[in-house]
Amino acid sequence: MGIAKIPAVIWLLGAVLALGVSISPAQGAKTRHHDFFIKESNYTRLCKERTVLTVNGQFPGPTIYSRKGDLVIVNVYNQGDKNITIHWHGVDQPRNPWSDGPEYITQCPIRPGGNFTYRVILSEEEGTLWWHAHSDFDRTTIHGAIVIHPKLGTTFPFKKPHKEIPVILGEWWKADVNHLLEEAERTGGEINISDANTINGQPGDLFPCSKASTYKIPVQHGKTYLLRIINAGLSNDLFFAIAGHNLTVVGTDGHYTKPFTVKHIMIAPGQTMDALLEANRADGGRYYMAARTFASNPNIEVNNSTATAIVEYMNDTPARGPPAFPANLPGVNDIDSATAYTAQLRSLSSKDHPVDVPRQVDERMLVTIAVNVLPCPPNETCGGPAGNRFAASLNNVSFTNPSVDILGAYYRSVHGVFEADFPNKPPFFFNFTDVDNDPIERWATKRGTKVKVVEYGTVVEVVFQDTSILGAENHPMHLHGYTFYVVGRGFGNFDEQKDPATYNMVDPPHQNTVSVPKAGWAAIRFRAINPGVWFMHCHFGRHVVWGMNTVFIVKDGKAPEAKMLPPPQNMPTC
């Protein structure tokens, strides 16, 4: 046993003795250990070498392999030059917000030279999730896949694939993206767009200096491959397709779906999709796998590029010649294709993978999503709209990170860190989705560190409503600590009298990140049975730093198993 693991063991034993509970893995599962060393590494993309932060020198980072119910212990050693935290995206972390990861929400960051041991408690998740940095824009290069296999003695609800392949979609900047963030925060202006989309860290051979390093997937005719697709990007929804092949979607966000076959998928930042690829081309050959930006707001500058990888048939004679390009990859503004794809997502809803959609709602929230402005300080020049500073909000509250973590303040009853009055509805109503009418007086917002407090066991319905303020667009809304049911979605303004009648209460998708449609709404439901402090935010990086966030605080229940676990002894300090 290494010295670094002794405190973790002591804490685990202490938790067992103090509470009479254990966070050991579920019966038949395992405890798995990983060491993550945050370090600077040099990578060359687009003809230019850059120094980036990585985990263990790898970009993308290492894949965590596990089984349903496992306990994964990750020792993170910060050997980089800046503060860092790691989030385990889509892992519910039952009763354990201490290891969730967002900086100043559930922890203070790990300082350079410091370390922290995360305890990642897997429970109901099965499929593909991912981990990433949750500090500044560090997730651009600090991210990796989490593969959760079925428990021993069980299997996939589909034919076992010949091979499983993580496919991580991301972005690359020629410049240091955190320097770009610092400049944008100084001026209040936009953040420069990325220079390329990537597939498993590579832009592909449509970009300069990239042909030799294009990612390649060898396949054999007649075999089936499970692609574990992750959108780790900071800025872009993405269309994804493979020339000459269909994809059969079987899962999303760590939960199985009813299988459906498509020519392309649309995946938002934060989401995962599991898709089966049948290598059924008897003639073999080489085929581009392509990821192209889907931009729902034509008024903002986007990285309108297409990343490629190559699927190569490796039969008796290896494939040669130029790859075919996917003819059915939608265009950058094809909102109809994105909408049609998302509408097909349905939970598997089988005996082994049932759904449990809450029927009765205790607390309803209508949460408006907006890009806004804050006034430019006196004697300064700002780069946002009309000389203001860019901001963003939920229910017109632009979230501000405190200087200490909210979880610690809540647990220790420290006052003055947050306000427990996040509103259940916007402060004023108008035609939220009238894209032709955006008066400047609606642009303003106010800063605050407002959270929503709910009692244990409360059934919560949140309707996310996009607005046309400074341009309507899709928003990938992510809730930490919970997997929710996406019971409804539509375009226009949500009608509380009529729209609930259209909800899918039979087999709605079970997700942790919902793509709220441009100039539309999406409704989610969840039972608040995971006590703790849980971040809710848009997964577009610029919207997070602008304030499109809030926090749910779920109180402890009465039973011992309904209470938060105690904090580990080695929590980082601010």
From TrEMBL:
<dbReference type="InterPro" id="IPR001117">
    <property type="entry name" value="Cu-oxidase_2nd"/>
</dbReference>
<keyword id="KW-0964">Secreted</keyword>
<keyword id="KW-0186">Copper</keyword>
<comment type="similarity">
    <text>Belongs to the multicopper oxidase family.</text>
</comment>
<dbReference type="InterPro" id="IPR034285">
    <property type="entry name" value="CuRO_2_LCC"/>
</dbReference>
<dbReference type="InterPro" id="IPR002355">
    <property type="entry name" value="Cu_oxidase_Cu_BS"/>
</dbReference>
<dbReference type="InterPro" id="IPR011707">
    <property type="entry name" value="Cu-oxidase-like_N"/>
</dbReference>
<feature type="domain" description="Plastocyanin-like">
    <location>
        <begin position="164"/>
        <end position="314"/>
    </location>
</feature>
<dbReference type="Pfam" id="PF07731">
    <property type="entry name" value="Cu-oxidase_2"/>
</dbReference>
<dbReference type="InterPro" id="IPR034288">
    <property type="entry name" value="CuRO_1_LCC"/>
</dbReference>
<dbReference type="InterPro" id="IPR045087">
    <property type="entry name" value="Cu-oxidase_fam"/>
</dbReference>
<feature type="domain" description="Plastocyanin-like">
    <location>
        <begin position="39"/>
        <end position="151"/>
    </location>
</feature>
<dbReference type="GO" id="GO:0052716">
    <property type="term" value="F:hydroquinone:oxygen oxidoreductase activity"/>
</dbReference>
<keyword id="KW-0439">Lignin degradation</keyword>
<protein>
    <recommendedName>
        <fullName>Laccase</fullName>
        <ecNumber>1.10.3.2</ecNumber>
    </recommendedName>
</protein>
<dbReference type="GO" id="GO:0016491">
    <property type="term" value="F:oxidoreductase activity"/>
</dbReference>
<keyword id="KW-0052">Apoplast</keyword>
<dbReference type="InterPro" id="IPR034289">
    <property type="entry name" value="CuRO_3_LCC"/>
</dbReference>
<dbReference type="InterPro" id="IPR017761">
    <property type="entry name" value="Laccase"/>
</dbReference>
<dbReference type="InterPro" id="IPR008972">
    <property type="entry name" value="Cupredoxin"/>
</dbReference>
<feature type="signal peptide">
    <location>
        <begin position="1"/>
        <end position="28"/>
    </location>
</feature>
<comment type="function">
    <text>Lignin degradation and detoxification of lignin-derived products.</text>
</comment>
<dbReference type="GO" id="GO:0048046">
    <property type="term" value="C:apoplast"/>
</dbReference>
<keyword id="KW-0732">Signal</keyword>
<keyword id="KW-0560">Oxidoreductase</keyword>
<dbReference type="Pfam" id="PF07732">
    <property type="entry name" value="Cu-oxidase_3"/>
</dbReference>
<dbReference type="Pfam" id="PF00394">
    <property type="entry name" value="Cu-oxidase"/>
</dbReference>
<keyword id="KW-0677">Repeat</keyword>
<dbReference type="InterPro" id="IPR011706">
    <property type="entry name" value="Cu-oxidase_C"/>
</dbReference>
<feature type="domain" description="Plastocyanin-like">
    <location>
        <begin position="422"/>
        <end position="557"/>
    </location>
</feature>
<dbReference type="GO" id="GO:0005507">
    <property type="term" value="F:copper ion binding"/>
</dbReference>
<dbReference type="GO" id="GO:0046274">
    <property type="term" value="P:lignin catabolic process"/>
</dbReference>
<dbReference type="InterPro" id="IPR033138">
    <property type="entry name" value="Cu_oxidase_CS"/>
</dbReference>
<keyword id="KW-0479">Metal-binding</keyword>
